[in-house]
Design a protein that fits this description.
Length: 138
């Protein structure tokens, strides 16, 4: 499972049982404070039973960690603590850009591309696909 962390929304992607196909799953409204996982996410983790949770860390283009990266890391630590699952941090610098490109390639209308959560789910899917691809190679 992969999560595209945002202060308002969290994009979720999941994989099939064979761990070969990454697919958009859902978006969840983030909790307040945002570093705490929303209750819906904890239920989703229990339902989907992932082996590992990938959390996108939004670092700056120069590789430095800003406020959002620190916040996303705290969020990931809370998930690990509350769920007992392995949580992997993942550089997500270009995942939102790649998600936008996917939407264009899929010829999704501009109006639909602006729907809240669609890009978040696809960004999580990009993170998960990259992770699965590296797992295959390694």
């Amino acid at each position: 499972m992969a999560l595209d962390y945002g202060r308002r929304r969290i994009g979720v992607a999941a994989t099939d049982p064979s761990r070969t196909i990454a697919s958009p799953h859902s978006t969840l409204a983030n909790a307040d404070p945002p570093e705490e996982p929303p209750a819906g996410l904890l239920r989703l983790l229990a339902d989907l039973e992932p082996v590992v949770v990938i959390v996108g860390i939004p670092v700056h283009m120069d590789g430095t960690a800003g406020e959002m990266a620190v916040e996303a890391r705290r969020f990931a630590e809370r998930i690990a603590l509350l769920s007992g699952l392995e949580v992997v941090h993942r550089d997500e610098r270009l995942s939102s850009y790649e998600a936008e490109e996917l939407l264009r390639e899929m010829q999704i209308s501009r109006r639909r591309r602006r729907e809240k959560g669609l890009k978040d789910m696809l960004a999580a899917t990009v993170l998960l696909r990259e992770y699965l691809g590296e797992s295959e190679d390694g």
